[in-house]
Amino acid sequence: MLDKKIKELGDRFLGFENRDGFKVVKALIPLNWKVLSEINDKFEIGFVRDKVNPTITNFIGSTECEYSDVIDLIIKTIRTNTEIELKQLLLNEKIKELVSLFEKNSLDKLERITFSFDKKVKKLSNKANEPTPEISNEIEEIENNDIKN
């Protein structure tokens, strides 16, 4: 089980230490990432950035903690920050799409733009500057309503 978790960390995993019963797991975490801590009724896990190389983060679990608990927190830190980065990329892509919409459409059309989530969400297009199906549908609906009116 521990081997599987270490494999999930990949190249970010740097090693284990035991400092007077405290479980220490070293991992590479980018400086711009938020590093998570955990406190619960069983144990506490904190972190300290290395003074020489601050991308090396020492996750330190209390004596009641297991190495797997510390690794779980590192995995959670990686997943949380990866999701934040992907959301930022998606936001940037959507901003570009909106800028394009605003350049190409009249104010009357733009005032009717709405945002909603469908139960069936299509993946983003990988082609540069091509609107996603959701935005394309919104444009078509606006244009169709203009034709009818």
If you compute it from the alpha carbons, what radius of gyration comes out, rounded to the nearest whole angstrom?
Answer: 23 Å
Strand proportion, as a percent range, falls in: 15-25%
The general outline is: elongated
Helix/strand/pairing class, anyone?
Answer: alpha+beta
Q: How is the main sheet built?
A: 5 strands, antiparallel
Low-confidence segments, given as residue ranges, are 126-140, 145-149
User: What is the count of structural domains?
Assistant: 2
Number of strands: 5
Tally of individual helices:
4
The portion of residues assigned to helices is 40-55%
**What is the overall pLDDT average?**
85
List the helices and strands and how they pair.
Layout: H1 2-9, E1 13-19, E2 22-28, E3 38-39, E4 44-49, E5 56-61, H2 67-104, H3 107-110, H4 133-148
Helix pairs in contact: 1-2
Description:
This protein has 149 residues and is an alpha+beta fold. It has 2 domains: 1-99, no CATH class; 105-149, no CATH class. 44% of the residues lie in helices and 19% in strands. It contains 4 helices and 5 strands, in the order αβββββααα. It has helices at 2-9, 67-104, 107-110, 133-148; strands at 13-19, 22-28, 38-39, 44-49, 56-61. The chain has a 5-stranded antiparallel β-sheet with strand order 1-2-5-4-3, with helices on one face. A hairpin with a 6-residue loop joins β4 and β5 (56-61). The chain starts with a helix and ends with a helix.
